[in-house]
Design brief:
Number of helices: 5
Radius of gyration: 15 Å
Strand content: 5-15%
Helix content: 25-40%
Distance between the termini: 22 Å
Number of domains: 1
Strand order of the largest sheet: 2-1-3-4
Number of strands: 4
Order of helices and strands: EHEHEHHEH
Bound molecules: iron/sulfur cluster
Length: 144
């Protein structure tokens, strides 16, 4: 984890609003807790973790949600956006059990990295079953 000056303070995971109608997000949290999958390489301890959904297609609400977060972080804790890293959850970023990648993924990238200038990564939970399907060519990329 070297591309965030001073190291990240907040790791935010943007999850699919539709998928989260049925998913608690537990496996994303577990992956963060274990520093596995998309969170591999983060230092143990000291990091805050905030999952939120995109707000539903086309994902535009994520801009408002993250703007609110950045304002609160700056005002209450003096944390700047250079200390925040955003991940697109695996169910947003990759072909997986729940379906193909988000059809608005590039729009989400534009909002998060382009408009808000936040550090953006792809992936959260890495499912062994999905990884096996990817290796076997069943999934086009990634996993859930
Ligand atoms: S990546 Fe998995 S655990 Fe995380 S929100 Fe999507 S479906 Fe749920
Ligand atoms: S914009 Fe993408 S991530 Fe958000 S609800 Fe729609 S399909 Fe899911």
């Amino acid at each position: 984890m070297t591309d965030v000056p001073g190291g990240p303070a907040y790791v935010v995971v943007v999850q699919c609003h539709i998928v989260k109608e049925r998913c608690s997000g537990y496996l994303c949290e577990l992956a963060f807790h274990e520093r596995s999958g998309g969170f591999e390489g983060y230092p143990a301890g000291g990091l805050r973790f905030l999952p939120l959904t995109c707000g539903g297609c086309c994902g535009r609400a994520v801009h408002r949600k993250l703007t609110n977060l950045l304002r609160q972080l700056r005002k209450r804790e003096g944390v700047g956006k250079d200390r925040v890293v955003v991940h697109l959850s695996s169910c947003v970023a990759n072909d997986n059990f729940h379906g193909p990648p988000c059809p608005h993924k590039e729009y989400l990238r534009t909002l998060i990295a382009g408009k808000l200038g936040l550090s953006l990564r792809e992936g959260s939970r890495t499912s062994p079953a999905a990884a096996a399907r990817r290796a076997g060519g069943v999934y086009r990329s990634g996993d859930g």
